């Protein structure tokens, strides 16, 4: 049993090890492909001469196409700009990813639309209407009466024997509700409400003014209870005043002691504080006393700082090393194939001649089959022709140049100094 369990665990470890090894190999191969397989680019620019007045745009008919491929066209990216606008396409293994994403979005919308239709049909207000005809008494639904039972009894008293409703506000002879109101006019119970002079009911109400219960509320000068209350109040007030006086005396003593302590401490620290204040106030006084710098003085100070930085040996070494690495990158990333067939004019023979002289000073034009024809007779500025450039970009070259810069101690010293200045 133990042997079988051990063999099973060894088999699991073996499988896990092989899987991990395969993943590491795949990652290492992907890294090598990214670093050493170049990314190839192809740029094509073409323009046609516009048949328009002299104020027309000379690059109105410009068409630009950029292609980027990697790993034998496994990944292909193209960008086209022209009259139709900007057009892009991204392909991986021959599959257009942009179109694929658009199809997936359409399918998701088509799947979501039937669900929305079903929900709208389920909650259709036309189908949820009440099918019962309210006008037909045979189809009416008996809704339970939710009124107050007291109001129902009151309404029942106004209903006649024949089912008609009697208005309670009408004073008819046959109105049973109005009859009790007529009886109240001669009701003997209303008599006690009359206020006569000899009314036995009203007499006791008049005696309330001279009621004997009100006598104890009178405050006489010889009342012993009132005198005791006044004495107690005076004693409590005197005690409170004494307590307040004691508190005030204590606070005065404490403040005097604190003032004495502070005066001692300040006398000890007075010499130190004066020296510190003088030291702190010295640079401010110098700044205030110094005259303001003018524009010429500022420019001179900036020029001196720049000259000092340029004359520094570490900075000069860092600039030279960075420039050399940039030249190496340009040499490796420059176009391997260049083809040009262009004719141009700037509507002024002088400007056309200046541009032709500048182009003739570029030696890399003569290494490739390039034909550039200036037009000195045209009265309209135009550019007509086609330019195509092909080359490749390798990530490994960039990583090697970056590694060389990192290994340079003087260059890294300058970088750290600049980072410290930026952080400060």
Brief summary:
With 424 residues, the protein is an alpha+beta fold. 53% of the residues lie in helices and 14% in strands.
Keyphrases for this structure?
about 425 residues, alpha+beta, eight-stranded mixed beta sheet, 11 helices, extended
Biggest sheet: strands side by side, in what order?
A: 5-4-3-2-1-8-6-7
Which spans have pLDDT < 50 for at least 5 consecutive residues? 128-134, 171-222
Largest sheet: 8 strands, mixed
Name the shape in a single word. Answer: extended
Q: Tell me the total number of β-strands.
A: 8
Order of helices and strands: HEEEEEHHHHHHHEHEEHH
- Spatial separation of the terminal alpha carbons: 69 Å
Number of helices: 11
Strand content: 5-15%
List the helices and strands and how they pair.
Layout: H1 2-36, E1 39-47, E2 63-70, E3 75-82, E4 85-92, E5 95-96, H2 97-122, H3 149-157, H4 179-183, H5 203-206, H6 224-289, H7 295-311, H8 313-333, E6 337-345, H9 349-360, E7 370-374, E8 382-393, H10 395-407, H11 409-423
Parallel strand pairs: 6-7
Antiparallel strand pairs: 1-2, 1-8, 2-3, 3-4, 4-5, 6-8
Helix pairs in contact: 8-10, 8-11
3D architecture notes:
The chain is of the alpha+beta class and 424 residues long. The protein is built from eleven helices and eight strands. The chain has helices at residues 2-36, 97-122, 149-157, 179-183, 203-206, 224-289, 295-311, 313-333, 349-360, 395-407, 409-423; strands at residues 39-47, 63-70, 75-82, 85-92, 95-96, 337-345, 370-374, 382-393. Strands 5-4-3-2-1-8-6-7 form an eight-stranded mixed β-sheet. The protein is extended. The two termini are 69 Å apart. The model is unreliable at 128-134 and 171-222 (pLDDT under 50).
